[in-house]
Design goal:
alpha+beta; two-stranded antiparallel ribbon; 4-stranded antiparallel beta sheet
């Protein structure tokens, strides 16, 4: 048997090996470390020889650049053809975006388009390749080829997902569990009469609590729930400062998880009793002013200071002088305006549902004679205010 030249494939071994000057089968490689022999308890016969010929040897050099990691599940796949294994290895070594259609691969390798298409179908059937038809932004329909370095079927069930497992179809995420509804706040006392001013004062007090303790920052809903409870305290004559001290004193040192619930319990548990009954104070007696007399009309009236009577006050425009006009022999009810010199007399008083009324009214001007029954009365003697323009 003739030895092949160094660097050429041996027909009997099927692998290109790196050789020295001698034939690799008759010279032991001294650089290979000795391997420990497996101890077999059932193989102790001293005359039984172990096979030391044949087998594959490796002369490996560590790659630092331009290399691709290929899993043994592809390189030693028991069902894929050699063409499919080689084509899968080539596709995994290509950069992202490289053309991988049948026409391009047929131009690259000596195998024809039919064999390459069959190999692609093998890779696709075993999960190493995925081809999808998508529409681009310009409207064209293209085939998108995705090479998977580790198909889902070859992965361990408990293996954590990595970037290398990008080709595994992602299972839908479980729906996020909805948070349980929050427990309602404890009930708070209510005031007997919820006056708007009282509720406003209670809301202002609650909104100001975080200035005294930053842990007591309340939301709008919590403030609306607690406001009637604070109003009940204020209604019982508790000062706002006392309410604030009752709510903020002796807070838990480990912190307040839900300040609104803590305040609600304090408002209900520490509610003070109603204030004691107080009889309403007696109304002060009305002021009784001394009698005053105005010389202009000789009419007595009560006032704190001397002056004109109500009918004679010149600061009230259009006020008439109402009194019983007294003459020498007759006294007749009537009215007379001291400024304008006009007046009227009333007679024939009678009862009505609205009270007593006069049936006859006679108007007159200062100086005229007024006839009442059998009496004729002159009005020239009635007093008048002096005309300042005439003087």
């Amino acid at each position: 048997m003739r030895r092949p030249p160094p660097g050429l494939a041996s027909h009997c071994e099927g692998l290109t090996t790196k050789e020295a000057g001698t034939f690799p089968m008759d010279t032991q490689n001294p650089s290979v470390p000795p391997h420990a022999q497996a101890h077999d308890a059932g193989n102790k016969h001293p005359n039984r020889a172990h096979r030391t010929t044949g087998g594959l040897q490796h002369d490996n050099t560590r790659h630092t650049t331009r290399f691709t990691v290929i899993g043994n599940h592809l390189a030693q796949h028991p069902e894929l053809s050699l063409l499919a294994i080689g084509l899968g290895t080539h596709l995994q070594s290509l950069p992202k975006g490289a053309p991988a259609d049948i026409k391009t691969l047929a131009a690259r390798f000596p195998e024809g388009a039919a064999r390459i298409a069959a190999a692609l179908r093998e890779l696709e059937a075993h999960g190493y390749l995925r081809r999808e038809r998508v529409r681009t932004s310009t409207g064209r329909i293209v085939t998108r080829t995705t090479s998977c370095n580790q198909p889902a079927a070859a992965r361990h069930p408990t293996e954590a997902p990595t970037r290398a497992a990008a080709c595994e179809e992602r299972a839908p995420r479980p729906k996020r569990e909805q948070r349980a509804p929050r427990k309602p706040l404890p009930a708070v006392p209510s005031p007997a009469y919820a006056a708007p001013e009282l509720l406003r004062a209670a809301t202002d007090l609650l909104a100001d609590l975080h200035r005294h303790d930053s842990r007591l920052l309340l939301s709008t809903g919590d403030t609306a729930h607690l406001a009637p409870g604070v109003a009940a305290w204020l209604e019982r004559d508790v000062a706002p400062a006392a309410v604030r001290r009752a709510l903020t004193a002796d807070l838990p040192p480990e912190g307040v998880r839900r300040p609104a619930a803590l305040l609600a319990r304090r408002l209900a548990d520490r509610l003070p009793p109603p204030p004691p009954f107080r009889a309403p104070a007696a109304a002060p007696p009305p002021v009784r002013h001394p009698l005053q007399n105005w010389d202009g009309c000789d009419h007595a009236f009560r006032a704190p200071h001397p002056g004109r009577c109500r009918a004679c006050r010149t600061d009230l425009q259009g006020v008439a002088w109402h009194e019983r006009i007294a003459w020498t022999d007759i006294e007749v009810p009537g009215s007379f305006d001291l400024r304008t010199g006009t007046g009227a007399v009333f007679t024939d008083m009678h009862s009505t549902p609205g009270g007593p009324r006069y049936a006859v009214r006679k108007n007159f001007v200062h100086g005229e004679d007024v006839t009442i029954g059998e009496w004729t009365i002159s009005t020239s003697g009635l007093p008048r205010y002096q005309d300042d323009s005439a003087s």
